[in-house]
């Protein structure tokens, strides 16, 4: 039955994460914490020990009451942090070393990272195939794919284990964010550094070149940046006064400037002010102001903007009317779906749902925020969630044993059949899935 009690005692979702086609929710309960996952499970990213999808939230057995304080999703993998236990776990698709486990095997249950054990993690972010971790003393560690320099190590060599970003020694990194193949970090000085793939200006240095080393973002001089976020190919920053800046790929109006132009130096968003929360999706962006009003802009084919239609939101950011009158306190965007929590503990999801990543108990897309009762305060049944969490035997599989490499179509074959899954090039979903066909 649902748990009752004071607001402080009631079970409530206090953390969100969204990947390409899966979602995580961090649940605070009277007895501890619980991580729930749902959506696509083919690569083990749900953490339940199998490769099955889930269309309703299920607790990850290995993480029940482990003091989890942060959750993050990459395209097809997941990470969580326990401040209490000073531990980071990762699981899911493991190629290129994105899990930081020292190899490229897929992992189907949460795996602790010994190389970061004993460190308190302040911020973690996952891209398509790379991961950033900032510790509470301001150090930055990166691992995973690095073909565009997105690890900030001064090379394009992948890393199977967490590596310190030496170029930022002397800076205290507070917040990190990952796009498909680029990275952002904000320091205690309010500066923003970017590195990785830069074709559309998403590095923010006025150029369209990849950067293999942390590069200071231009146009933010005199601005104290408090928050950073990334979409697939675009970048977002919010200063301590609530001003929002975006730059990078703008072809789908995801930069919230009311046009389709790419931007090479951060440009302030005029249409939304007093911003408290931001999230970037594949081609869309969400922003909530300090009053809790939610706005969206960009590609909306699957309803991921939440405005009640599937039309692109181009002219100006639109308020998400389905949540009008409710104060939004948390937001997150996956590739094509979106999540939000309101002040009263309501959990809402919308957008693409082909793998059940909305948690609605079906696989139907939804073009406006829809309540998920099993994750909403007042109707969360912790006992039932605990009973549904099943112990599993840990196992892992090398990608080469699970997927056939299919040549790129239309260009004679690139020799990197898995590259499209990393988001390197725009590829239709069916074609992208073909390149990851199971053997």
TrEMBL record:
Basic and acidic residues bias (residue ranges): 423-439
Spans of repeat RCC: 33-84, 86-137, 138-189, 190-241, 242-291, 292-344, 345-398
Entries under InterPro entries matching the protein: RCC1-like_dom, RCC1/BLIP-II, Reg_chr_condens, Ub_ligase/GEF_domain
The keyword Repeat is assigned to this record: yes
Cross-referenced Pfam families: RCC1, WD40_RLD
RCC1-like domain location: 10-272
Keywords linked to the UniProt accession: Repeat
Top-level taxon: Eukaryota
Residue span of region Disordered: 403-439
PANTHER family: REGULATOR OF CHROMOSOME CONDENSATION (PTHR22870), ULTRAVIOLET-B RECEPTOR UVR8 (PTHR22870:SF360)
Protein name listed in UniProt: RCC1-like domain-containing protein
